[in-house]
Amino acid sequence: MIWGWLAAAVVLGSIAASVAGLWLGAGFQPDRFVGGYTLGILGFTVLEAGLSMLLSVGLAIPAARALARRTRFPGRVPLIALLALPMVVPPLVGVLAIVQIWGRSGLVSRAAQALGLETSINVYGLTGILLAHVFFNMPFATRMLLQAWASIPGEHWRLARQLGLGGPGVFRFVEWPVLRRALPSAAALVFLLCFTSFAIVLALGGGPPNATLEVAIFQAVRFDLDFGLALALAAIQVTVCAAVLIGLGRLQRTAPLGLGIDPPAVRPDLDGRWGRIGDGAAITLVAAVLLVPLAAIAVDGLLGPVAEALSRSALWWAAARSLALAVGSAALAVALGLAIVSTLRELRVRHGRPRLAGGMEAASSLVLVVPPFVLAAGWFLLLRPVLDVFAYGLGLVLVANVLISLPFVVRVVTPAATMTFERTWRLADSLGMAGWRRVCLIDLPALRRPVGLAYGIAAALAFGDLGVIAMFGTNDTQTLPLYLYQLIGAYRMGEASVVGLLLVVCCLGLFALGDRVMGRARA
Amino acid sequence: MKPILTASTALALGLAAAPVLSPALAQTPELVVYTYSSFVSDWGPGPELEEMFEAQCGCDLEFVGVEDGVVILSRLRLEGDSTDADVALGLDTNLLAEARDTGLLAPHDLDLSDLDLPVAWDDDVFVPYDYGYFAFVYDTEVLAEPPASLDELVHGSDAEVLVEDPRTSTPGLGLLLWMRSLYGDEADAAWAALRPRIVTVSAGWSEAYGLFLGGEAPLVLSYTTSPAYHRIAEETERYAAALFEDGHYLQVEVAARLAGSDQPELARQFLEFLVSPDAQAVIPTTNWMYPVRMPEDGLPDAFDDPSAITPLLIDPEEVAANRRQWIDDWLEAMSR
Of the candidates A222, A324, A489, which has its C-beta nearest B206's C-beta? Predict the structure, then answer.
């Protein structure tokens, strides 16, 4: 128990330190921000994040279900392996890929023109923002929900077969209870990511009213160095997101699942024709959302000046730094995350305190809505008098990345960890098993898959990080994403496409590392 | 799984402790110059200038490249008197008033009267080292006849444009001031007229220029010097700057030395070097801006002649005093 509280204290302490730094450095000027402008963009932010969440999760449910039902079709394994990838694609690269498809001279427009149709797609506006957010988040939501399906015990399927349940019955009695655990968590993550989306919203938004609160915070920190205003705006952002997190947490239900030790059994509802067609459509949709933009990125990269781009030593230094950052911060994030998860499942199951557990889960996610540059500026102001902050730049970037990956680790591991605990805690208690023995004998074998996935996600997130490094980074600490932006800033779009592809490939490698090395056991 | 966790934790701790392990080799005097990262990239002017200056100063020139000019200023402000920087290089015209107000900068003591700048320069703190003009770059394969003036673009054209956001980017602020300098208090009406043809307002130059190269609009807000890159490095004439007869907004990039520098003489020497003919000859094709000292045989042909351009500039103090209000007005005009 104690480790979880300690981990939570580390997280909240880091945020509090940043707030304290800003407060001391800036004071508080509350009369500056309460204006129509702030309220206007707050409204838009809630709208775009809410719609992005509904669309992403709404499409992810049938997609995850279809992938769970159809376990052997060609390409299933690589498709699933690619699901978490868009989340770590740098926003600028993703936006350009989306525009290559949906833009004015994009694939869809050109195809329509070739067919002699008058095209009237205007991607700029809410449409474009939603299209991009669905690409960035829907595949990841699918991956999270797929975890839930994979955790349904074999007994349930056997029972469903004996009872002769059809499709609707299976969904109602077997799948829905498991889904209700995972759904609010996935929805909350997508909401937070879209709420704080920034470059995507501006690039595809079409005009200044379509901006998020994050833009105003960026403006306050970067251009005005007005930390009081930044703090006030960040407080609004945290409050709104905390309310949404708590609301979604309330929807979470943990139905008792009973003992389950059997391997997964064959579902009884796979034969209907309509089921096949529906599954086919859902899988086609998720594949299209995922693969078409990724293909655009790959083609661009391969058509670029590959040899020239790869011959620069700055590229490899940047890649090496990113890799070290990724591997290190992912390990720390997984360690912290597991500590938190182990405490919150005890709270939820053994002590019957679901509210407290939910609060802990929400608290570990809050760092996602504190903009990274605000976090960085706060630490800077606090630490500056005692140490040379820039000499420790990469160290601070590492800490920040641990915090940013933590919510993903917690949310990916929690459902499976809680379920394992429900099934085993009485038995383990009666055997007097505790501490590390319990972790090694019960949890690790059961949780390899989700922990491996969490490690991969945390590593890839740190690999692609742009937020904190931009504040502390210099040319001596340049990471791959910064290098990519620098190339674009110097007109070198061709080389940048190559680096973009390299970045995506590296992230894929990190996922594979998590999956193969840690998650190799069959779940 | 445990060995991996252990190994990567060790790696992480090593990463955090790395600076402690690198002892300072402070035998030769060191000159620390804060600049933006593209200045010191492989393809920027930094490496060549470093070699040239170190050959003559008997010192170690260390460039610290941060994201951009705005970050240079905020880093100086955050560090205050304790900064390691001896020189700040890469602030632009619109940051001058705020940079001066920090009180961290010292006079340059140089005679700059013979520089080739389009405006008179009598500032005693900031040393201009290059300049450029904001411009709409167009795709000649899509747009045969670009507008001949900003006024024509605003009121007499049906071409669509990509622009940047003044809340988050330097070119965005540049266009805001450009409109202000031409239309004064009527700028809001001009923005309202342009609004329907603005495809999108991106956070930074990179997004806008990327969308432009992807064919999303025939015009993008960039610099008069952008086509020179395409002509020289990519050998294509496809992109050109629309040269406006009613003028272009000027951006001057400057350097200054820090009052608290422990190498004041070296810092002064570096500023002098920066505007010397040798250093200036490096600027055009590495930083893609106009030099403040014209080379004897002129600029490469790929550059549009800067002497044919009418400069527009609002006094930096006036910009500092009104920036917030003008951005609010712009938001109002663009939201209607």
Answer: A489
